[in-house]
Amino acid sequence: MKKMPYLKAVVLEGLRRHPPGHLLLPHRVTEDTELGGYKVPKKGTVNFNAAEIGRDPRVWEEPMEFKPERFIGEGEEVEVDITGSRGIKMIPFGAGRRICPAIGLAMLHLEYFVVNMVNEFEWKEVEGDEVDLSEKLEFTVVMKYPLKARVVPRRRRRRHILVMA
Ligand code: HEM
To answer: Residue span of the signal peptide, if any (predicted)?
Structure first.
């Protein structure tokens, strides 16, 4: 998978445009503090809007478009820092001390999952049921209109059509 930069770029673009946690987890300040000109009292709650950070037009060109190419630099390398250690551009896993400890595991699984789904199946729209990427807030953010797809196994011996809902 290391030799598949576009795969990584697709996963990153998914996390930028549709982070599973729009507000990450709430954080609590331990001292009276000032943040971006606002006074936050001790024990006050601070939420970080990761979804808006990933859509900031001052940082991202055409932020609402799904464009994995934005992550591919010269020499086909994937260029981005999602840990917030070199500046906050997108933070789907949070940043700093409480960053998701499973960031490496999660990225590996996402890439592994996507590559296998694409390698094993051909994905097509269900006629009259176009894919709508609107979001809905549940415990995490999910698709407002669950994906319906015609999924055709690529290997001939398993070639029967499945409809996923
Ligand atoms: C796509 C997958 C995942 C995403 C987007 C994600 C995202 C996040 C986010 C945003 C936080 C809060 C960070 C903050 O407060 O600033 C978090 C915390 C956490 N995540 Fe994940 N996570 C993912 C998968 C996982 C997995 C697979 C595990 C465990 C195997 C995991 C374990 C944890 C734990 C234990 C914390 C709490 C860390 C702390 O408060 O110190 N996450 N994650």
So the answer is: none
How many H helices and E strands in the chain? 3, 9
Cα-to-centroid distance, 99 and ligand 1 (Å): 7
Distance, in Å, from the CA atom of 92 to the CA atom of 22, rounded to the nearest integer, reads: 8
Q: Which residues line ligand 1 (CB under 6 A)?
A: 20-21, 24-25, 92-94, 98-102, 105-106, 110
Q: Which residue's CA is the nearest one to ligand 1's atom 25?
A: 102
| Residue 32 CA, ligand 1 centroid: distance in Å | 27
Pairing type for strands 27-28 and 45-46 reads antiparallel
**111-160 pLDDT tens trace:** 999 999 999 999 999 999 999 999 999 999 999 999 999 999 998 666 55
User: Which ipTM did the prediction report?
Assistant: 0.98
